């Protein structure tokens, strides 16, 4: 049975992906750091899904995570680097603490999780990075979030080339506006939601399950000749003039 590790896998897109992959026969491990989300995931996900508390900013947590994954799953066929945070603020209001937190979670934490997971990756496996349309298309207040997620996109071609000798494919998925707990936490006013929806040709927000289907495709043999790509899942957002 193939095995997958999903960071930020207790809610939203990560959790939807965990549920989908488990249903398709994967052994799955997910990480999170919010006690409530971790407890809910343990209650609601299948009993054999491994739920591991881990803060990607803490290297000791990442080391412990890899030991647990090695002991329980042995090796990995998919690494889905999905953990991330978003703290919107105008440039003038960004604090050093907020900047460091987003950089540490969205880029540094994911980078070193990848580094430490590579010895567990099977040749021919798949790595998927969550980036988001904000890395390419602007939004006021999103400078730090876009830059720290965009850093993953910037390293994508180099990483795909570096891991090609092992036939490990490296791709990104970039969701647009998606109905997730994180989106709800942003408390976007209804007028803003309506304006965002009006710019999407499909005239609706995406679902976590729709993004999960793309991740599952990138993890599968059907995507065996796809690497170094960023797959946008945004209902056509940004296509209009």
UniProtKB/TrEMBL annotation:
InterPro entries documented for this protein: NAD(P)-bd_dom_sf, SDR_DHRS6-like, SDR_fam
SUPFAM superfamilies associated with the record: NAD(P)-binding Rossmann-fold domains (SSF51735)
Asked if the keyword Oxidoreductase belongs to this entry, the reply reads yes
Determine if Oxidoreductase is one of this entry's keywords.
yes
Give the UniProt keywords, A-Z. Answer: Oxidoreductase
**PANTHER family in UniProt:** DIHYDROANTICAPSIN 7-DEHYDROGENASE (PTHR43477:SF1)
Output this protein's name: Oxidoreductase
Organism for this UniProt entry: Micromonospora arida
């Amino acid at each position: 049975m193939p095995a997958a590790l999903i960071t930020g896998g207790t809610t939203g897109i990560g959790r939807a992906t965990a549920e989908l992959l488990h249903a398709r026969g994967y052994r799955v491990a997910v990480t999170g750091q919010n006690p409530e989300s971790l407890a809910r995931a343990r209650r609601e996900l299948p009993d054999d899904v491994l739920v591991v508390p881990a803060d990607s900013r803490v290297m000791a947590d990442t080391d412990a995570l890899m030991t647990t994954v090695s002991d329980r799953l042995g090796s990995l066929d998919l690494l889905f680097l999905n953990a991330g945070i978003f703290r919107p603020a105008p440039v003038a209001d960004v604090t050093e603490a907020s900047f460091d937190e987003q950089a540490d979670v969205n880029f540094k934490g994911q980078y070193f999780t990848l580094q430490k997971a590579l010895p567990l990756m099977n040749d021919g496996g798949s790595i998927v990075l969550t980036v988001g349309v904000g890395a390419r298309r602007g939004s006021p207040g999103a400078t730090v979030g876009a830059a720290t997620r965009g850093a993953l996109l910037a390293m994508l071609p180099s990483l795909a080339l570096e891991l090609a000798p092992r036939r490990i494919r490296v791709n990104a998925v970039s969701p647009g506006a998606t109905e997730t707990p994180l989106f709800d936490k942003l408390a976007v006013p209804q007028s803003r939601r309506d304006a965002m929806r009006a710019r999407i040709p499909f005239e609706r927000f995406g679902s976590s399950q729709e993004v999960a289907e793309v991740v599952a495709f990138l993890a599968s043999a059907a995507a065996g000749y796809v690497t170094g790509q960023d797959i946008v899942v945004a209902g056509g957002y940004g296509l209009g003039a």
